[in-house]
Structure formats: C-alpha cells, structure tokens
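Per reviewer request, we include the raw input and output of the structure prediction for the construct analysed in the revised manuscript.
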Amino acid sequence: MRRERGVAMLTAIILVALATIVAASIAFVSGMTARRTSGAFMFDQGIQFAGAAEAMAAYVLREDRKDNQTDDYSETWAQPYGPVELIEGSGIWLEARLDDAQGRFNVNNLVDADGVVRTEGIDQFKRLLATLQLEEKWAALLADWIDADDQPNGFEGGEDTLYLAQSPAYRAPNAPIVSISELLALPGFGSERYLRIAPYVSALPPGTPLNVCTAPGIVIDAMTEEREYGLDAERLAKSRESGCFPTKADLQAKTDAAKWVTLQYQISDSSEYFRLRSFVGIGTMELALYSLLKRESTGVRPILRTYGTD
C-alpha cells in the first residue's frame, strides 16, 4: 500500500509538471502570436503614415514648382517637419525631411547615356576623392563597375576577372547603380571610406546635372576645378540663407570659356530628384522609410523606396 501511494503521488507530480509545461507553452505561444500580430499591425500603420509623408512631400514639391524654377535650401520644401504627434495622446509620431538628391555628385555620371566612360567625369570624381583624402583609384574601379563594356579601364580598373576572384565570387553589373551602397562591392572599399563619401554622392540616371544651389562646396569645387566654395562650409551655408548661391552666372564668370562649354550642361539651379527621410514611431515600433522622389511636369512620384537603412 505504501509503495502504491508513493507511485500514485509520483504520477500525480509528473502529471502536474506536464500540465504546467503544456500550459506555459500554450501561454507563451499565445503571447508571442499576439505580440507578432500587434507588431505586424503597427508596422502596417507605420507604412501608411510614411506613405502620408510621401504624399505631403509631393504636395510641397508641386507647390514649390508653381512659385519658381530654382531649388535651394531657403525654400519651404527644405524645412524639416516634426517630430510631431499625429493624433493627440495616440503615441504616434512622425518626422520627415527632404533633401536635394541632385545636390550631390552623381556617380552614374562617370559614364554617358550609352554606358561609355567619361574621362571628364572620372577627373571630377578623382578631385572629390582627393579632397576627402581617399585614393583616386576608386574612380576607375567604379567607372568599370558601371560602364557597358567588359574591358578594364587602365591598370586601376577592374571587370569580372577581379570580382570572380573574390569570396564569394560575383560579377560587375556593367550598368548604372541604383544605390550608393554598391560602393561597398568594390574590393577593399570598406565601411570607413563609404561613411566618409556617402554624404557627397548620389545614384541618379546618367546625365542628371548637379544643382549648385544645394551642393556641398567641395562637390562644386570638384566639378569646376576651383578651391573656393569648399574652404568654409559655414560661410557657404550663411550665403545660402537668402537663396541660391553660387548661381550659374557666378560660376560662369569664374570659369574658363572653353571649360564652360561642357560644364554648363553638367550643372543646374533646379532639381527633379529629391530624397525623403520619414521616421514613424508607434508605441515601441519605429519605422524608417527612405524615398527617392522624382518631380515631373505631371506631378511627383516615388521611384525607389528602402526600409530601415538608407
């Protein structure tokens, strides 16, 4: 009888333990399912609010085009929005900012519309690299990454033979890049160089001109072979408080006539491409949306979106 009572008690203890494990497992799964559902719902909400930020930016850009044909950082579109609580007491926050994507050196301008390397574009990019204390060899390597042929651009260039030797192996796309993060595909480029050059470059269609009203001084100097506007960033920013500076007329007055023949088509005082950064916070969920917007005669449309990272 004592042995039977001991076995019965042991069995009861085991059953209670098993029931506890099952109950805890069910509670955990139910809790995680509820949390995933809540997270998915908040993420969908965040996408909608970020889409609203895109619509708001499109409206501002359309209205700006009605006022004038020049784009600079003194205008309404360049003013940051938020952070603002969209619905009082909801805990839903939105912050957004527009930047001029044409106010950076377009790396796809290393080639022309047919994918042929532009020597002038490489020289301009080399000057920018030198100013940032980066090796000039990256200009030839990047040009080979983009151009349409499969022949290396001199001793500093590189095509499939270079990339197939990497681990893992890959090929050069031989097409314009869609994101400046492709710079990291160049062997040895690394994150340190990328972070140094990222604020000064963009990836837009070949032939897209640089907006001198919004471009950093060192980018303007790289384009014009001058050393004036990049020497004092604070002074340049102050000069732009009231509008476009330098203007195309300012640059023409300081540029050799022979150089101006080609340079005048590579610079502009207006923009078609803008980069929108939208940040949404809902409870514990945070969403970052980066949108490349193109302003056309018929309106404004997003042509590229990335989530989480730029």
